[in-house]
Amino acid sequence: MLSGVSISAVRRVMDESLFSDPGLLYATRDMSGNRRAEFMAGRICAARSLRKMGVVAAFPLPGRNRQPVWPTGVLGSISHCSTTAVAVATAQSRYCALGVDVEPLIGPAIAQQIQRSICRDEELIGLERSVPGRKLALTLLFSAKEALFKALFPQVGGFKDFYAAEFFACEARSLVLRLTQDWNSQWLAGKKVKVRYAWRGEDVFSAVYLSRTGN
């Protein structure tokens, strides 16, 4: 367990019991059934993570840019796919950046369609030296970049395209991404960020967590 970070996950995203909260029902009133189930599962995970911190709060609902709005003093991140939802939360006094992502293994047809929007060929070739197979490498790189974007969004005030960061190195259960452009006055081109990851079946979980002490 990561020190100071509260984690919650659910595996049955389509469970109808998730549809009982009036606030979530209102926030998801215009969403399709599958999208609504994923959204609600993510918010339920977020509420559980907050409770583990001792924070009693409503489900984090979308802000102006659709990002979850967390209670004052809390950093958090939510991710969900068709089978899994996960959320993490921590105190802003302990961490300066926190981002999480979960992705199912990308199939061959989808991989061919989206590869060029996610990374350069050189990135995949480099990653495949450590992660065998194009599907695994592309899924992992996609998830790692998503986790990075979520972690830095509160500081840079917007999302970047996938070419704003690139694969740099692979370490034990982690990737190192390098920024290819200045994101703001603090996050400059060339800065490197470690992204931890773990596979659970055919889902990959990626996380960026940067403590204020640098540990």
UniProtKB/TrEMBL annotation:
An example of a Pfam family matching this protein is 4PPT_N
> Which protein family is it in?
Belongs to the P-Pant transferase superfamily. EntD family.
Q: What does this protein do?
A: Involved in the biosynthesis of the siderophore enterobactin (enterochelin), which is a macrocyclic trimeric lactone of N-(2,3-dihydroxybenzoyl)-serine. The serine trilactone serves as a scaffolding for the three catechol functionalities that provide hexadentate coordination for the tightly ligated iron(2+) atoms.
Protein name, per record: Enterobactin synthase component D
| Source organism per UniProt | Pollutimonas bauzanensis
Record carries keyword Amino-acid biosynthesis: no
| Pathway membership | Siderophore biosynthesis; enterobactin biosynthesis
Q: Which GO terms describe its molecular function?
A: holo-[acyl-carrier-protein] synthase activity; magnesium ion binding
Q: What GO CC annotations are associated with the protein?
A: enterobactin synthetase complex; plasma membrane
BP-aspect Gene Ontology terms: enterobactin biosynthetic process
